[in-house]
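Task card 7
Instruction: Convert sequence to structure tokens.
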Amino acid sequence: MNVNEKPKMSTVGEHNKPKRILIIGGVAGGATAAARLRRLDEAAEITILEKGKYVSFANCGLPYFISRDIQKRSNLLLQTPEGFYSRYRVEVKTNTEAIEIKRSEKIVVARTSGDNQEIHYDKLLLAQGGSPVVPALPGVAKNHVFKLWTIPDMDRIHKFIEENKPTHAVIAGGGFIGLEMAEALSARGLKVTIVEAAPQVMISMDAEFGAMIKSGLEDHGIQIKTHVGLSEIKNNSVLLSDETELNADMVLLSIGTRPELALAKASGLKIGENGGLVVDETMRTNDPDIYAAGDMIEVVNKIHGRKVRIPLAGPANRQGRIAATNMLAGNMLYHGALGTSVVKLFDFTAASTGLSEKVAREAGFDVGISYVFRDHHVTYYPGSKPLALKLIYDKKTTRLLGGQAYGQAGVEKRIDVLATALHGRMTLEDLSELDLAYAPPYNGANDPVNLAAFIGLNHITEFSPLKTPFETLNELKNLENIILDVRTMGEQSKAPLHDALHIPADEIRDRLSEIPMNKTVFLLSKDGFLGHTTLQILKANGWTRVYNIAGGYLAARWVDGWNFHK
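Output:
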């Protein structure tokens, strides 16, 4: 849509009646759509049906009320039905469930307190979101078992903690809500165990970042069990699938969400292969008068172009805005999402955007990766904190595919830079030239994003070829290959690697005769930098089969199979 183009607005003079717009779902996409509709058309009749008691609440803030970071419950209530009407002249019907869509008649049947009513519409927006998965386990209906999705869910958890003073909590699921609630319950004084059926927590990120997150949580007293699920919930404990029994005064279920599709399916609307409602670029379903937005729909992944589900608040709000515009005859297009996300974990932050390495490989890209382990600003300025950054790129085109980061400061800044770069389809060359703000309290003269791009370009041009820690393990199955550990004596002594030839980087030139030329040499340094400089020395002296291990020890330590001794 041209920024100067305004959608056609229905007026009382057009067919002598205002346009009737009905929205099912009053959180995130639905609430955003209602406000946008009113700004575009003062005459439209806008109605929101909300199944729950609350409309337009900050569902992403719920864990922070549990932790008491947010003290006032009212701060999470962004709008009320009365407020919606006063500000936007939008009628909000809470505790009202849409139970049927009569598409041919353009009628929605809604139920409030057992009574049904028929509501006519000209355009309909479905913004029902999703709901937590509740497994059919023995004991799942007990009073000390919770989920966290709505304000009443939050109230119930808070009241239980206040009144019952639980001491041990088990959280089933290591995704966003599970990890945020681990911190929240720990802040309330509970001993917390996370149980995750997958091999790692935060399955949307690559394995080494899952391992970093796990280690950081364990440092704060959170116990984590992976490769295991719940089998039974008892009165004061849970039984796991490996027959372990854990103390549990309270249990939180956070094992995933599913889109709310019962109404859409019953109405004959098209459901996609990934289990979400199908919409086009205008957010319209296969019914020309029904639009949809938010967690219930499938969207295009901007990197590989396939349809996926990305249940995040940012995309949902933008989808609601676009759907509202197009319901009023606009022509605004939604081009997809990147899945950019961030999570606070005590004093650490984890964030990602675009494709993970695993997903990029599954999508068929010729994947290259680069790591940077640097402080978030110059080390000589007080307060610098370590930052781990990973770029995923296509080696054929040098196009950026994704990024992940973990650390105590500067994490979201770098991921936002990478999200912007992904939106602009930027390459490693572009990233290497980014002119990012520098002053000692904020950054280095070369930002970690610049440095990661340099590393990737050095690999592609074969100036400094890389092998990932995982690739190196596979290569070492060939006995003709060796690891040359070039870490300093102090670095190596803290985490020695057996069966490696150790020659500190500063001694390489004087000890070249100790390095076999008839074998492939993999260089292990602390973070990859001394491996890079050593590689140039070996190349200049005739070595042809030599690789730098990407990220060095700081990356390899998180990969299964690397046996560093402490």
